[in-house]
Design goal:
By secondary structure, the protein is of the alpha/beta class. It is built from 15 helices and 13 strands. Helix 8 (205-219) crosses helix 13. It is globular and about 60 Å long.
Length: 375
């Protein structure tokens, strides 16, 4: 059995594809995989690191803001919308897949469409409650659409709702790593506070600014272990700021561009500070993490805040909009959680009620059902 997976741009699109591939490999051990992505997306790093081959096509999105620079960008995107489909067709013809799976990002459009046009069984997975543009564009062509939130079906035409949608949740690989095991691997004592923070694979300027204040005012001087990922965009700038502030001279502070062992660190953390993307929330729920969420204000329909609000209303997380959060408020919130293990426990218990632990396997089952390839 041969499978092509495509999803790119950010880890929120790439990790679901990697997790689905892992679930498929468990069920069909001799399956052969190929990923399709873009050279500038984080998939160019994450996919080879996971041990899978990848081929690239050139594709980008359109900008809605009017400017001369964006006119040039949109003209290039229009050309790539055509050439990327041709490139994807060539890869599909050469690899001859039995199945093509898309998990979002611009690269899913040419790959999944080309496969569907050739009669290859196709499935797409939508991580967010509000479907992305790529998912909506591909909906008429694909055989199956896996959604992650009850209620997302209302955003699709009736014909799609009746025949193609399956509620699966987000695919998270559940490793059952215990807190004690994770902390031992990271060299943490059982009672030592550990803070984990990140703004997503591409980074988030405001999250970086707030976390650096937290490091400067609290975790740094209090010698509290704290790991932070800056993200790809802005890494050079914030790396320089970290050096200027002497963060790298403190053994308790760890700063990097990206966290590759995220599951390990989530399992060990007492408090996690992060955005509220769909994959992130699914990871937190499966692993039972106490979190302070800072939803991105730059997403369609403000869906990150809406998703985070569901958790907050259930007592499963603390949520702050960027506009209402400053460094001192964040310091106070982290201090309170560090000092109150019972409060953390209540949050950890509440967030676990949102977990869908078998999502990756359910999606793999849906995909194999299109091919009858499972032995």
């Amino acid at each position: 059995m041969k499978v092509i997976l495509c999803g790119g741009g950010t880890s929120g699109h790439v990790n679901p594809a990697l997790n689905i591939a892992a679930a498929l490999k468990k069920r069909v051990p001799d399956a052969e995989f190929l990923f399709i992505g873009t050279e500038h997306g984080i998939e160019s790093t994450l996919v080879p690191k996971a041990g899978y081959p990848i081929k690239f096509v050139e594709v980008s999105g359109f900008s809605r803001k009017l400017s001369f620079a964006n006119l040039k960008k949109n003209a290039r995107a229009a050309v790539q919308a055509v050439t990327s489909v041709r490139a994807a067709k060539k890869i599909i013809k050469e690899f001859a897949p039995d199945l093509v799976i898309g998990t979002g990002g611009y690269v899913s459009w040419p790959t999944v469409k080309a496969a569907a046009k050739r009669g290859v069984p196709t499935l797409i997975h939508e991580q967010n409650a509000f479907p992305g543009v790529t998912t909506k564009m591909l909906a008429p062509y694909v055989d199956k659409i896996c959604i992650s939130f009850d209620g997302s079906e209302k955003y699709f035409p009736e014909s799609v709702r009746e025949n193609k949608l399956v509620l699966t949740g987000n695919p998270i690989i559940v490793d059952d790593l215990t807190r004690a095991q994770a902390r031992e691997q990271l060299g943490l004592t059982p009672d030592e506070p550990y803070i984990l923070s990140y703004g997503g694979s591409m980074g988030a300027r405001r999250v970086n600014e707030l976390v650096f204040e937290l490091m400067e005012k609290y975790t740094g001087p209090q010698s509290i272990r704290h790991t932070h990922a800056i993200g790809r965009v802005g890494y050079t700038e914030f790396d320089a700021i970290a050096r200027e502030k002497g963060f790298y001279d403190r053994k308790n502070l760890e700063i990097s561009e990206y966290i590759y062992d995220m599951a390990l660190r989530q399992a060990a953390a007492d408090v996690i500070i992060c955005r509220a993307g769909a994959m992130t929330l699914s990871e937190l729920a499966v692993r039972g993490c106490a979190a302070i969420l800072i939803p991105s204000p730059h997403v369609t329909e403000d869906h990150q805040y809406k998703n985070a609000r569901l958790l907050a209303d259930a007592g499963a997380a603390l949520v702050y909009r960027e506009t209402e959060l400053d460094g001192d408020t964040l310091v106070s919130a982290v201090k309170d959680l560090v000092a109150n293990p019972n409060k953390r426990l209540r949050m950890q218990t509440a967030i676990k009620s949102f977990a869908m632990r078998d999502s990756a396997d359910v999606i793999a089952g849906c995909a194999l059902g299109l091919t009858n390839a499972e032995k």
